Amino acid sequence: MVELVVGSRASQLARAQVKEFLAPLRARFPDVAFRHRVILEDGDLDRKSDLREVSERGGGAAFAGRQAAALLDREVDVVVHSLKDLPTADPDGLLLLPAPPRADVRDALCGAALADLPTGARVGTSAARRIAQLLYARPDLAPERIRGNVPTRLTRLRTLDAVVLAAAGLHRLGRAGEVAEYLPLDRFPPSPGQGALGIQVRADDAGARELLAGTGDPVTDAEVRAERAMLAELHGGCSVPIGAHATTADGILTLHGQLTTPRGTRQIEARLSGTSAEPEKLGRAVAALLLDQDAETLLRAPQFQPR
Ligand SMILES: NCc1[nH]cc(CCC(=O)O)c1CC(=O)O
């Protein structure tokens, strides 16, 4: 009997993503034994969260490094990540399969809608992009750093006026009912790759690649490749306030890129369409339009430290 061991982090969201990825595969390959193995990351073990903070600034190694090692050591055959948490460059010997169909790409405000938040309202989020976008829209707001997994962040609504979370995570955890407002994509483009799974395998594992060949969605894949190519071109890690959202209509890919200073004082945007056959080219072209608007200066702006 063929066996495929699927790795992921331990969170409820990671488990839900594995289920979502495996459901069609289990139906299609009843003779394959799909097993799930949890791989704890350094960031998961660290309860005081100092490491978590470092890793969020440094591009995610502390959240994906153990998964990569487990793949290379053949403890698992495939890892299911949140694509947006992965650096744009693949580790040596590993590659991403074409992305499966993605979930809702939007950010969601829980607790209250933006227009209903009182002056000076405290809004929880740790993402630099979300803080910058919120302050650009509402300079009066008081962003507060929140950490932990999605359910933990939602508990902060007891003391905060609102929290921002990815709609995809809320939906996957059955918490869509907590959403007060889906933030509009034209003003709040998400993190590159948001809502998509990152399916990582060993580059030389022909068996796994063959078994998983049908799991990608060409539309999602072209969109996230354009978004991530833009991010790579701007040398942005997850600590930089960069939003990117690609959509597809009639085989034409349109990419909206946005860059905001950390305190939300300035914002630049670019939008271009191109063939979905060359998503990276589109991503680089949108990055070039942002760089023409002095993106470099915005990228060098000092970090904002929320409370
Ligand atoms: N960085 C944490 C993270 N990574 C992926 C998701 C949700 C799923 C997704 O955006 O694809 C989240 C939580 C959030 O941003 O609210």
Task: Give an account of the 3D structure.
35% of the residues lie in helices and 23% in strands. The chain is an alpha/beta fold and 307 residues long. The strands form 3 sheets. It has a 5-stranded mixed beta sheet with strand order 2-1-3-10-4, with helices on both faces. Strands 7-6-8-5-9 form a 5-stranded mixed beta sheet. A 3-stranded antiparallel beta sheet has the order 11-12-13. The termini are far apart. The model is unreliable at 48-60 (pLDDT under 50).
Q: Can you give me a brief rundown of this structure?
A:
With 307 residues, the protein is an alpha/beta fold. The chain folds into three domains: 3-101 and 196-216, 3-Layer(aba) Sandwich (D-Maltodextrin-Binding Protein, domain 2), CATH 3.40.190.10; 107-182, 3-Layer(aba) Sandwich (D-Maltodextrin-Binding Protein, domain 2); 228-300, Porphobilinogen deaminase, C-terminal domain (Double Stranded RNA Binding Domain, 2-Layer Sandwich), CATH 3.30.160.40. The chain has eleven helices and 13 strands.
